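User: We ran a pulldown and think these components assemble together. Before we commit to crystallization trials, I'd like a predicted model of the whole complex to look at. Sequences follow.
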Amino acid sequence: MTSKGLNDIPKSYEPAHVEAKWYQFWLEQGYFTPEIDDKKEPFVIIMPPPNVTGELHLGTAFTAIIEDTLIRWHRMQGKPTLWLPGSDHAGIAGQNVVEQLLAEEGISRHTLGREKFLERMWEWMNKYRGIIAAQHKRLGASSDLTRERFTMDPGPSLAVRTTFVNLSKKGLIYRGERIINWCPRCITALSDLEVEHKELSSNLYYVRYRLEGEEDRFITVATTRPETILGDTAVAVNPEDERHKSHLGKQAILPVVGRTIPILADEAVDPAFGTGAVKITPAHDPVDFEVAQRQNLPSINILNLDATMGENAGPYAGLGRFECRQALLEDLEKEGLLVTIEPYVHSVGHCQRCQTMVEPLLSKQWFVNTAPLAKPAHKVVKERQIEIIPERFTKVYLNWMENIRDWCISRQLWWGHRIPAWYCGTCDGDKIDIIPIDEFLRERDLPHGTHTYSKLRELGVSHDEIVRNTDWVTIDLSANPIVATDAPHQCPVCNGTDLLQDPDVLDTWFSSALWPHSTLGWPEETEDFKYFYPTTVMETGYDILFFWVARMIMMGLENTGEIPFHKVYLHGLIRDEKGEKMSKSKGNVVDPVQAIEKYGTDALRFAISTGNSPGNDMRLSPHKLEGSRNFTNKLWNAARFVIGNINSEEATIPVETNLVEDRWILSRLNRLTAEVTELLEQFQLGEAVRRIYDFLWTEYCDWYIEIAKIRLRQDGDGYSPMPVLVHVLETTMRLLHPFMPFITEEIWQQVKESSPSANPGSIMIAPYPTADTETFDADAERDMELVIDIIRSIRNARMESKVDPGRFIEASIIAENAKPTLDALAPAIAALARVRPLTILSNQDGGTSGNEQAKILVLKGAEVVLPLGGMIDVGAERSRLLKEIEANQNEISRIEHLLADTNFLAKAPSHIVDKERQKLDDRNDIQRKLKEKLADLG
RNA sequence: GGGCGGUUAGCUCAGUGGUUAGAGCGCUUGCUUCACACGCAAGAAGUCACAGGUUCAAAUCCUGUACCGCCCACCA
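Assistant: Here's a predicted model for the assembly, 938 residues in total across the polymer chains.
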């Protein structure tokens, strides 16, 4: 290799060019695509597919960075390593984004129609899938792009339909009328998980209902939602409640609407709350619905799907829900039926995607019967077949599985996996209600509203037209869906061919639940599936433990009979400097791409990795990014120094040395390697990378390179520090590569030829360092500690005495055991402490007594004498010594006390006791010397 | 109502049964020293929230308290 001068290398690290170059290279070499090798156990991570709702945000960047680090580490260990990337169609969130765009153009999806709308959805998805992929590249993500999957791809879609069919056949998916959470803005049902509860201060309204046939006798109920009075079908009291016993069996008259409803007894009523009498609104409250089921009460739905009041709301029909509340309250007030209003704080559900207040609504939807799926999913975690990291989330998971409720999976959206259920337009025709889009009705001059399938056909509308122009459909309970993975051609009952597919789509998390196996080819028995499944680690944020992780375990076990992954690693959330969640509206978002452009990918990766521990949230600030950028620059310049000094012959000399600083740095390097490996195995990525940082900056740069510089100037003794300098740099680059892929590759490429290690084409596939315990060298570490201590003490003394920084001062060091080391490092000590001349004496050569013009530093293992001439203030010197003596005495007393404790001696491990004894000896030695010096001062 | 996490230097956070608690930023002082001023050197700065307990030894384990944050839950 040709030597490079320092000036050939830029003075500061320029990431952009380096990043583009190496990513392209890796891609071309095919390093991201693993080879299937049955003799080796693969390492597999399926990437949590980011939502295609726009550009990449810091959360997905966080995920990618952690996963890439794990992936690169394992790949360097020689395992067939698969990181499968993908993206998610994002159901409601995805549809909302495109609908907003349409709104800006002044159109709605309904005017566009389902087919055209879906075309727009695909356009958006394809565009942003590309952007997300590009952004992953910027992060240095080494995912296997040849296996990239989208949740709506044919493969994962077939997996979805197959699962739906299988579960239906087993009775684990059913269609039924239940109280669900309804978002009137998204116009769709939601699962319980998609509802966010917020504490709101509102009012509790006490309303009295007149008793039928009894003048001026009332029963008073309390409610937070007075408008639901319109849907009441009973008043319930606790059977034990003496206050209301006389009311049982009577009829109450609903205010305003005048309907009569029964007063009945039900256990669900808490006599202590409110008045002990509860209005029962089965169509709009889950508890009331249960009461109604028990008591055989009718349900009256008073709302339209957009939360305006429906026809059952009588005079209030057409009003918004809150307008209706206001109007009704006024009417109640007028009639003297509003008894009182109490301020009341309670939690109210809001749509996770649009923050609209949700309405509990009786509706016919598809559900997953989760209990049978939860049982095995609970077991595999309980029995630690799947390990969750950090451990504390195990309890959260188990608790959720124990209290799991059925999962509402149908969504009244257009974007998503269409439910693979069909209804027969011939035999079920008059049971199928259809709501065609308004445009279509206008064209046909038909009235706005619901139509039955058969009626539309009678009016001459063809089946195809109905299918194309249908917004949503409601189907009578008796309608019989045909569930199949592919569109059926004929009704098995009547052979009719007018089949109408269920218009709803599936919860986006339904396809996500299958992700580990659907991306690998299931339901086909593909090579990938056979080799890579079950996967190794599922790495994701703790915020989607229930949404995703729990469901993957349930569905994975159900579909494949195996766990989907062995370990779950949960990371925290990224917050801003003040610990707040980042959001566009707060303006505190750090855009990963902007951060990369400003600081470089490796700096962003380092900032995110370092100091972070599993499951804990972290804050990211520009300050942190700056610090990380500084580290990349430091690295760059350390490398610049090394590369600039490489001379081809000497640098390729095998690393074989007896010099103390060499033995020291190699020992430290191997200890570092051992620690980093152990930390990585425990998923302590933040701590691992921090150790590498410390080693590089402090031990390698501040000490080893500084000493090496002095060695380089000492020509002619046949020794060069270059082999060790290069070897340590090369090895540390490999240690660091999983965290900071680009700069390590760039540096490694320039030093690899000078290193005796294996020399593959890229650091990416170079072996990850392993610790060589033979290299551990306690003597060298102890000796170097002394050298560092000496240099520091001299520098400190110079500062204290305000010695001109440029000036050389005279010094002598008196040492016993360490003398050979100090002799060997004398030039380095002299240069680094600015000492000239430096004399190193052994104890026998005589003490230092009588020299009151000298400053004397007593260290563990050596004494340093600085004859500073007139610069010594004897008074200050005396007080310095006294202070040191006092501090030392405190420590001596502490240890003496400890060593006098028989309990300590009996119970503490012997190496601890020995350590304390050694410390005491050292301290006593220092103390004796300090006292001598004090005496010498006179 | 149940559960979880946090409380460590001015700020942001690591740490974890071993007795002298670390880093980055910030601060003080000095330095354009031939890798790096995105730097170097030297420093100041913490009764590890509080109260008990276990232990030879507690910032670390246990119990309780306070404050902050999060998750779950059908309080009309």
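The mean pLDDT of chain A is 87. That may be worth checking against your pulldown data before setting up trials.

User: Thanks, that helps.
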